[in-house]
Amino acid sequence: MNRRTQDIDAAVGLRMAARRSALGLSQTALALQLGVSFQQVQKYEKGANRVSASRLHQVATVLGCSVADFFPARAEALDPMAGLRDLVATADGRAMAEAFPRIHDPAVRQAVTRVIVALASA
Questions:
Q1: 79 falls in which pLDDT band (50, 70, 90)?
Q2: What's the CATH number where 21 sits?
Q3: Domain range spanning residue 64?
Q4: Cα–Cα distances in Å, from 12 out to 44, 74, 114, 116?
Q5: Is 77 contained in some domain?
Q6: H-assigned helices in 35-105
């Protein structure tokens, strides 16, 4: 963890991206409503840049949710299904979740899993 960002920044960004995606908004559309560049939205969503309290309030207003919705609850952190809910909250995640069971070769499924785990760790 570097000095500038922490795990919570990534968690907030993930939830921001999931909410935006669930509403069918592009990063550009959200950026326009916030008055920032789409690159800045990307950085927020990846947890590369921290979101200030005032900006987080603005994001919550635009996305029609509360600021608290961007933070993991203690119980959610202990919930093994929390990651699955985050996965299916995005279009890419839903596509992957729908396609994965159609891979019938166990070796291919294992290879895909290893690739995803490696990419997530990078």
A1: low
A2: 1.10.260.40
A3: 7-70
A4: 8, 14, 26, 21
A5: no
A6: 38-46, 53-63, 74-78, 82-87, 91-99
